[in-house]
Every structure is written in C-alpha cells, then in structure tokens.
Specification:
Elements: H1 21-30, E1 45-50, E2 52-57, H2 60-69, H3 78-88, H4 97-107, H5 113-118, H6 120-133, E3 137-140, H7 141-158, H8 166-179, H9 185-188, H10 198-223, H11 232-238, H12 250-280, H13 283-297, H14 311-323, E4 330-333, E5 338-340, E6 343-345, E7 350-353, H15 355-359, H16 401-418, E8 419-423, E9 429-432, E10 436-439, E11 443-448
The structure holds protoporphyrin IX containing FE (HEM).
Length: 449
C-alpha cells in the first residue's frame, strides 16, 4: 500500500482522565463510543465503579469465555434490555435460557445457507434499484442503503412489501433510535426500573406506528388461503417449543418480527455505507475493487454465484466492519463469581464488551486506525477468531450474519462497478446510539464509472 493510501478514517475523541458519573451519562446520550476511555484500547480489561461495579473487556480470550465457555454466567444486561424492551419485548435478541433456545430453533431454518442463497435474486434486484436511484452529484448514502436493505428484509420476513409504507416505517425507526435508543440518564443514576423514563414515553408513538404496521401484515397473512410462503413469518407462525408445546403469543410474534425488520436492515445498510466512505477516500483501493467487480460482472448486477470470484469486495467489507462495527458495544450482567483476564467478576457487575475498542486495540492490531483491507486477505486473516466480532460469537452469534454478508457483497460490488465515489462535505462522525451511524449522514459525490 502506498503512503498516500494510508488513510486514517474518522474516529471518536479519546479522553484520558476518569469521567464522573454525570459526565458519563451525558456523553453516553450523545455518543456511547465516547465513554470508552483511551486506556481501554491498550489493556485487556479495565474496571470502575459507578453505583455498580463495571468492567470493559477487550481481550480475545476473555471474549471467548463470555460468549462461549461460560455463556450462562453472562446474560444480556438489564440496561440494554431496557432500551430495547419497548420495541421488541423479550423476543429472541433479548431472551435468555429456555425462552431463547426455542425461539432460536424456530428462526434458524430461515437462515441456512441454502435458504439464504435462494434469497439472492431479491438482493440482486435491490442492487439494481439502488444503482438506478444514485444520481450523479452529491448523495446521502445511508438513506439510500436503508431503502435498499429494507426492501430485502421485507421479502424475507413477509414475502413482500404490500403492507408496508417503507417511508413511514423507516421514519418511525429513526425516531425510536433517537429517543429510546439513547442511554437513559436515569439508568446511569441508578433510578429503579419502575420510574418512568422520558425517552420511553417519547418513543411510544414510534413503537405504536411500527407495531401497527407489523400487526397488519401478520393479520393479512393469517387471512390468506394461498400455500405457505416459507418465509420468516411462516416459520414464526408455526414455531412450537418441542418440550412444552408453547407457541408465540400474538404480541411476541409482533415483537419478534419487529426486531427482524429493524435489525435485519439497519446494520447491513451501515456496513455498506461505511465501506463506500472508506473506498471514496482511498482511490487506489476503489480502483482495485472496481476492477475486480467489473471483471466478474461485465456490467450486470451481482448474484450469489459471483461472490467467490470477488474476494477483495469481501475484504473491504470485513475491514469496514472492523473500523465501524454496526453493533459497537454489547453489555452483559455477571451472575456468579468468575475471573476474566485475572480480574474478579462479582454477581451483578456490569460487563461491557466494547467491540469498537476490541477492533481498534493496540495489542491485537498493527496500525489499528488505518484502513487496510489486506488485513483480511486469506493469507493474513486475524489470528484469533475472538479478536474480530462484528456479529458476536458462540451460540448467540448473529443468526442473520450470512444473510447480511451476502446482501452487502451483492450491493457493494454492483455499485462500485458502476460508479466512482469521492468524499463530499461534511466529514461523517461515527456516533453510536443503538448502532454506529455516520452523523450527520454520509455524503459522497457520485459519478458514472
Ligand atoms: C451487518 C449486519 C449485522 C450485524 C453487524 C449484526 C450484529 C449482531 C450482533 C453483534 C449480535 C450479537 C449480539 C449479542 O451477542 O449481544 C447479533 C444478534 C442477532 N442478529 Fe444480527 N447483525 C447483522 C445483521 C442481522 C440480520 C440481517 C438479521 C436478521 C435478518 C439479524 C438478526 C439477529 C438476531 C435475531 C440476533 C440475536 C441472536 C440470538 O441472540 O440468538 N442480524 N447481530
């Protein structure tokens, strides 16, 4: 890589001193990534106390213990659950133990490799539409990618979009992220769970809009006489716990579908957008990606069968999700005493898993701030699987990872083949509320290649 290509993309301001509880709470509302102190990027684990004892773990061995070897000791934290519960209740993502297990078994078949490949034509059609919408000149990329990935998830979840006004739905999602998605000051100050949170009250309307639309789609499916569509909704409607015979209640069904629609498109749209930002700023990498895509695709949009022949496109996406993991921080609660990196974990401690810091950690990465897709070349992949965790790991690994990667590769290769991207003002800043988004958007100049 030439010196000119050693591009250091947008990061977050690092603070070196300890923050007070109020400062942490205020900063977390603005940008969760900014509460990660500079030394979290240099040490395997850091700890502190703020009403509760907390730790931030950014060590591959420790991650493996939390996500695999001692999984049941580290359920999802109450703070995270609180933020998500109004919209998705105790659905798959938020559930634990037996409740989680049977819901996971119910949806897993939708995401087998064979089924995901069968969805590729919908992704190819979306890539075509996304290309047709990009106009020459300055474009805001995230909103365009959100529209593209939203179409695909509606096909998977509901076999179509007829019951969805995608514009109304995505507006409601954005409103929800801006209200409930912001960590509550009251949570940080240790107010009891029954105390009303203003964010939750504000987000209530957005949640009602989304739930109403999902419920309508489910009602329409129940009324249908046509043969089953074999989509996510069908699997959910017929899911049954083999041990108890339990089925999803109507409310659980709505909340699960709601989660799939939100989680299934927002994260993927962000991964593609950040990849385009990085390529726009590194003309050499961009030319290489375009040459690879053009050689394979010869002008047409990509399909599942093309992906193996475009390894550089995959490397760019992997490196984009290292620098900008769409899910930048996870949190767990400690159940019983344990030890991580030599540090004692005690019951009720909060354990943060800052994926963002793990991916930019000075102990695990060479020149961590530099965009270098060749880190992911087949000969130089990260040595430890647990040092790179955009999709989590272990039994709770993202169920939609294959689906997301296929969709991202199809859309990115199709667009980079047809268009040339260059940066436009303003420079985006990574801000995490629920996901790591570029603020105030991602603006790029686009011209036909
Ligand atoms: C680039 C795109 C995506 C990223 C970065 C991502 C990231 C993640 C991460 C980090 C987790 C683990 C959370 C934890 O351990 O606390 C997760 C779980 C999950 N994701 Fe994704 N995700 C993506 C796309 C998708 C898609 C497309 C779907 C579905 C269509 C999906 C559905 C889920 C579900 C249901 C879970 C919970 C799994 C369980 O707990 O068993 N995700 N995702």
């Amino acid at each position: 890589m030439s010196a000119a290509e050693a591009f250091i993309p947008a990061g977050v301001p690092l603070h070196k001193r300890r923050l007070s509880r109020i400062e942490t709470a205020l900063i977390a509302r603005r940008n969760v990534l900014e509460i990660i102190p500079s030394y979290a990027y240099q040490r395997p684990i850091i700890s502190g106390e703020m009403l509760i004892r907390w730790h931030m773990l950014a060590d591959p061995g420790g991650m493996k213990r939390v996500m695999l070897d001692n999984l049941s000791n580290y359920p999802k934290s109450e703070i995270m659950r609180r933020m998500l519960r109004p919209a998705i209740g105790d659905s798959l993502f938020n559930a634990d133990g037996a409740e989680w297990k049977w819901q996971r078994q119910a949806v897993a078949p939708v995401f087998t490799h064979r089924n995901v490949v069968a969805l590729a034509p919908a992704m190819t059609a979306t890539a075509e539409r996304a290309g047709a919408k990009l106009a020459a000149g300055r474009n805001e990329i995230v909103s365009q990618m959100l529209t593209a990935t939203f179409d695909v998830i509606c096909d998977v979840a509901l076999s179509g979009r007829e019951h969805f006004d995608s514009h109304t739905f995505s507006e409601a999602i954005t409103r929800y992220f801006q209200t409930a998605g912001r960590a509550s000051l009251l949570d940080f100050l240790g107010f009891p769970p029954w105390f009303p949170r203003p964010g939750e009250l504000l987000s209530g309307l957005a949640v009602r809009t989304m739930h109403g639309m999902v419920a309508q789609a489910i009602a329409a499916r129940r009324a249908e006489t046509a043969p089953p569509a074999d989509d996510l909704l069908d699997h959910m409607l017929s899911a049954e716990d083999p041990e108890t015979g339990r089925r999803l209640s109507p409310e659980e069904l709505v909340r699960n579908m709601q989660f799939f629609i939100v989680a299934g498109h927002e994260t993927t749209a962000l991964a593609i957008s950040w990849a385009l930002y990085l390529l726009a700023n590194t003309p050499g990498h961009q030319t290489r990606a375009r040459a690879e895509a053009a050689a394979q695709l010869q002008g047409r949009a990509a399909g599942a069968a093309d992906l193996a022949a475009m390894p550089f496109i995959l490397m760019v996406l992997e490196e984009a999700m290292r620098l900008y993991p769409p899910v930048g921080l996870l949190a767990r609660t400690v159940i019983a005493e344990d030890e991580l990196c030599g540090r004692a974990m005690r019951p009720n401690d909060t354990l943060f898993l800052p994926i963002w810091a793990l991916h930019r950690h000075e102990m695990w990465w060479d020149r961590p701030a530099v965009f270098d897709p060749d880190r992911f070349s087949p000969t130089r992949r990260p040595r430890d699987k647990y040092q790179y965790l955009p999709f989590g790991a272990g039994p709770r690994v993202c169920v939609g990872a294959n689906f997301a990667m296929m969709q991202a590769q199809i859309i990115l290769s199709t667009l980079i083949q047809r268009f040339r991207f260059s940066p436009a003002a303003p420079e985006p800043q990574p801000v995490m509320t629920m996901t790591v988004r570029p603020e105030p958007g991602l603006f790029l100049n686009v011209e036909p290649a």
